[in-house]
Amino acid sequence: MVTRSILSLYGQSAMGMAGKEKIPLKDAEEMLDNLMKAYPLLEKAINKAHNDARYKGHVELISGLWRRLGHADSRALRQSFNAVVQGSGAYCTNTAVIMLWEAFQKYQFKSKLVATVHDSVVIDVYPAEIFKIATLCEYIFSHLPLPEIVSVHKGNLDVPEEWDNGDGTFRFPLHGEVEIGANYHDDVEYDPELISKFSNLQVYCQYQYAKLEISEAKGAGILTEEQAKAKEKALDSKLGLLEKVGA
Question: 105-124 burial, b if ≥16 CB within 10 A, otherwise e?
Fold first, then answer.
């Protein structure tokens, strides 16, 4: 099982995006402009990171740690905001790992923490614990007790009531996502309601892998829309058989 926090699009140049996405430069410029309009403080944060790199030679993460960048050349400026985002993300992930380990010890789970991959935590889950572990992971990743996240100055931001602390601060919304797989390489959507219909997790993963293959074949033009729907219908009709025989 893999649980990960949400990733953000940030700090990419229009020319870089145009080349990566193979779209006209004008379209890339429009996309980035819309991004900045949707997140009005993003450009300010990027500029601050650039200025810190240029005049201080380092940027500061939410943990208080520094990333030294040396000479403020174009490479250092490109790295500056990325260091803030990635370094702060690692701080959040490492905090979640500590909380998960403590919870596993407290409740004596048989499941084991295996590794971290970027902002994800890989867990070997004991089948009978899948629902408890998934719920625990989603909660911990969404409720990290970090002062820099749970008590953010609101200013003139229009914050939804559910995130408003009522004292001029708000809790920054985080969201933990859970995926499961039969191995460390292939993970699929975690759907607890659907999982309960299968005889075991292995069969559920096989079913989801098959659905993914159909979707990829349709996306690649190998299957038409009608053919893909027919295969999905046949796969769904096989659901009862999968439940009974576990194969």
Answer: eeeebebeeeeeeebbbbbe
The Cα 66–Cα 108 span in angstroms is 37
Identity (one letter) of the amino acid at 49? Answer: A
| CA pseudo-torsion sign 59, 60, 61, 62 | negative
**Nearby residues of 43 by Cβ (< 8 Å), 6 or more positions away:** 36
CA nearest neighbour of 128 among 178, 64, 73, 196: 196
* Rounded (10°) angle between helices 42-55 and 25-38: 100
| Residue 73 in this model has a pLDDT that exceeds 60 | yes
Cα–Cα distance list, 179 to 1, 143, 211 (Å): 6, 19, 15
- pLDDT at position 242 is 56
**224 to each of 211, 216, 228, 231, 235, how far by Cα in Å?**
15, 11, 6, 11, 16
User: 92: part of which helix (H) or strand (E)?
Assistant: helix 74-107
Q: Are the beta carbons of 161 and 171 closer than 8 angstroms?
A: no
pTM over 0.90: no
Q: What sign does the dihedral 186-189-195-197 (CA atoms) show?
A: negative
Q: How far apart are CA 28 and CA 34, in angstroms?
A: 10
**b/e per residue 142-175 (b: at least 16 CB within 10 A):** eebebeebeebebeeeebeeeeeeeeebbbeebe
Percent of the chain with pLDDT over 90: 42
